């Protein structure tokens, strides 16, 4: 029997997840189908409930339902617990709804394995303190950076993240101004600034020699953040396409117990 999965969001038409998971299933010979589900803004739980009652095995969850998915869960992975948001649900045979957050694992895999940039012992700067930043903090800290600084326009939110994650590593949060005179080896844009073609207020000297600039957004070409990085000494630029495919692979692994190859799927999705 074909096992059913889907991605739920609002909007959802633009999602690349069905394409990615179809490719993973083909590659690994898994008998599964993967659809896109549009949930009404006030109907996430009902949409999940119907899908599950009809025999669905698991869901990916995207904007704006990641926190609701986390609340709906009856069992949480550590990374979902710390993120207070979930992008993956698995309906367990014992009736539990397991929630996971694979975004951070996808990011660190893309940076560490695909881009070959070690995180251990490096100075890492994370821009933004919203849901996207929160979702990647624990996996980043587990890779043991020398420092993990969080900068946010509203500094209180970065300080709150510092408190929430302090037990897991050398994390510090504050405003952009305090970055002046400091340098980082990896600078990750987890703000939504690229959506509005804006640039976070970064001081110019922030990129250390050889630094990687990573925008978690994808499909926007060279974002203002990446343009700024290119003009201010970053040696390497990356967008979030690799993270998108890697987080999907991590969800696929949770559901199916098989790890698909991501490189061919990243190559397939690269703009020609
Ligand atoms: P997401 O789920 O994408 O993280 P969010 O929770 O609304 O969305 O958070 C958006 C993040 O992008 C916030 O950190 C926001 O900063 P504030 O907390 O100060 O609002 C940040 N952000 C959005 N536009 C920005 C811009 N133009 N410059 C700097 N930061 C920006």
Furnish the topology, listing elements before pairings.
Layout lengths: L2 E7 L7 H12 L3 E7 L5 H10 L4 E4 L4 H7 L2 E2 L1 H6 L4 E4 L5 E4 L2 H12 L8 E5 L3 H12 L4 E5 L3 H11 L5 E4 L9 E6 L17 E9 L8 H8 L4 E3 L2 H16 L6 H7 L3
Parallel strand pairs: 1-2, 1-3, 4-6, 7-8, 7-10, 8-9, 10-11, 11-12
Antiparallel strand pairs: 3-5, 5-6
Helix pairs in contact: 1-9, 5-6, 5-9
The structure holds 2'-monophosphoadenosine-5'-diphosphate.
Walkthrough of the structure:
With 272 residues, the chain is of the alpha/beta class. It is built from ten helices and twelve strands. The protein folds into two domains: 126 residues, 3-Layer(aba) Sandwich (Rossmann fold); 124 residues, NAD(P)-binding Rossmann-like Domain (Rossmann fold), CATH 3.40.50.720. The strands form two sheets. It has a six-stranded mixed beta sheet, with helices on both faces. A six-stranded parallel beta sheet has the order 9-8-7-10-11-12, sandwiched between helices. Strand 7, helix 6 and strand 8 form a beta-alpha-beta unit. The protein starts with a strand and ends with a helix. The model has no long low-confidence stretch (mean pLDDT 97). Bound molecules: 2'-monophosphoadenosine-5'-diphosphate. 2'-monophosphoadenosine-5'-diphosphate binds next to helix 6.
């Amino acid at each position: 029997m074909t096992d059913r999965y889907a991605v739920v969001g609002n909007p959802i038409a633009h999602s690349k997840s069905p394409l990615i998971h179809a490719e993973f299933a083909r590659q690994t010979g898994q008998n599964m189908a993967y659809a896109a589900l549009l949930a009404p803004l006030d109907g996430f739980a009902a949409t999940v409930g119907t899908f599950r009652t009809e025999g669905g095995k698991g869901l990916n969850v995207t904007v704006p339902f990641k926190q609701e998915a986390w609340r709906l869960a009856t069992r949480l992975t550590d990374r979902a617990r710390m993120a207070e948001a979930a992008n993956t649900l698995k309906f367990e045979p014992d009736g539990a709804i397991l929630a996971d957050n694979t975004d951070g694992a996808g990011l660190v895999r893309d940076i560490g394995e695909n881009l070959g940039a070690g995180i251990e012992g490096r100075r890492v700067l994370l821009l933004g303190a919203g849901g996207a930043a929160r979702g990647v903090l624990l996996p980043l800290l587990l890779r043991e950076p020398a420092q993990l600084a969080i900068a946010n326009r509203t500094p209180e939110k970065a300080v709150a993240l510092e408190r929430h994650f302090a037990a897991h590593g050398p994390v510090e949060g504050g405003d952009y101004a305090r970055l002046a005179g400091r340098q980082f080896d990896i600078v990750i844009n987890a703000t939504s600034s690229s959506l509005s073609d804006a640039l976070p207020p970064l001081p110019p000297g922030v990129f250390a020699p050889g630094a990687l600039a990573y925008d978690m957004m994808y499909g926007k070409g060279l974002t203002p953040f990446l343009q700024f990085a290119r003009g201010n000494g970053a040696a390497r630029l990356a967008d979030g396409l690799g993270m998108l495919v890697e987080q999907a692979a991590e969800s696929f692994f949770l559901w199916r117990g098989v790890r698909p190859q991501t490189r061919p799927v990243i190559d397939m999705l690269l703009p020609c």
